Amino acid sequence: MDKKSTILIIEDDQYISNFIAVSLEKEKYRVVSGKSATEGLFLFSSHQPDIILLDLGLPDRDGLEVIGELRKKSEVPILVVSARGQEKEKIEALDMGVNDYITKPFHMGELMARIRVAERNLLKYAHEKYETAFSAGRLTVDYDKRRVTLSDQEIHLTPIEYKLLLLLINNRGKVLTHNYILKHVWGYESTDTQNVRVYMANLRRKIEEKTASPRYILTEVGVGYRFSDDFDLTE
Length: 235
Ligand code: CA
What we know:
Layout: E1 6-10, H1 14-26, E2 30-34, H2 37-47, E3 51-55, H3 63-73, E4 78-82, H4 87-95, E5 100-103, H5 108-128, E6 133-136, E7 139-142, E8 147-150, E9 153-155, H6 159-170, E10 175-177, H7 178-186, H8 194-207, E11 217-220, E12 224-227
Helix pairs in contact: 6-7, 6-8
The structure holds calcium ion (CA).
């Protein structure tokens, strides 16, 4: 990529905000920072950032409200920065469709890695609109024919399994909560996520070589799943 992304930091802790900004600028990212929800939302409109780093604990408004506002108008990748003990808010944020989360205190290297994942997502979406198939390692999905193959052998998925697989592929690299998956595949929200687990296990049995060490559908313990966005899924 010739042009580095513009990243909006919404964080009221000046020390953390500066630290992140300096580190990102060192990597040649463009950075804009807001220290409240109001300022952040304003900067989002005025600067059209590529990625947002959002602190959940903001002085003026709830971070979850900010996500709601942002998602009304944009699918911009959002990385939530949560404090320890904000487990519930973190899951809610993921339910609302944020891409990823990182818990304070974190290592800059880890944050950078997650930003690169978000960037890869951006690149992917840019050209994926025109794609008619997905392919990674042994797995190929032909969208037009609704045909899924594993090492050129066709595998049969139920309509729900197929829908589930597409949701995962379209969101690869992104953490999807059980609730998010329920809402987008089954069309409702519930605390009973047993269905998701059962269908996911079936899907894994069909597409993973070793279900105990999956390469495509990764488990995010206590949260949900993430489809690998590692492009080197070679044999
Ligand atoms: Ca804060």
